[in-house]
Structure of Threonylcarbamoyl-AMP synthase:
Amino acid sequence: MAKYYDVHPDNPQPRTIGQIADSIRADALVAYPTDSCYALGCRLGSRDGIERIRTIRKLDDRHHFTLVCQDFAQLGQFVRVDNDVFRAIKASTPGSYTFILPATKEVPRMLQHPKKKTVGVRIPDHVVTQALLAELGEPLLSSTLLLPGEEEPMTQGWEIKDLLDHVLDGVVDSGDCGTEPTTVIDFSGGEAEIVRRGAGDTSRFE
């Protein structure tokens, strides 16, 4: 059964955030809210977490996982960013964007795209997610909570608890979150390529 965490949306309770972080460090897989929609998250090096996310979402090995980072300094540890791309990403974060970039050696090989050696990164604009990332001290390995055959991601904590209780270790609920997945921009080739249009405005990348 998944543990249900009721978190205040504006003033996350430090004790509860600490409990969630401790569970993630112990290899838990949790559903948590972001500024775009709910995501599945586990610790960076969790092979079990990756396989469980793949199973829940029925993903193949070409799927780009995302490292959800607290800030730009943390993001820079895991991807290579040249000056032009730096400015474009800096102007769009925090926000509802995922950027695909070449991975550094800090990113476990199992997270990288098998051929491109790339990974997704993002910095969310969400109080609860930011509190959790600050407590963890490292990125969350994440994937949008979009179930197979569904066109829209899940957005309600209680609904996620009911439906996925048997495959998750925790559900973090802080009320309403976004209802659209992130906009995905691929910078791995040097130029901005819009892979998915979502919650983030794409005009600056066109």
User: Anything to note?
Assistant: The first strand starts at residue 3 and ends at 6. Strands lie at 3-6, 30-33, 38-42, 66-68, 97-102, 118-122, 140-144, 170-173, 183-186, 193-196. The longest helix spans residues 14-25. The mean pLDDT is 94.
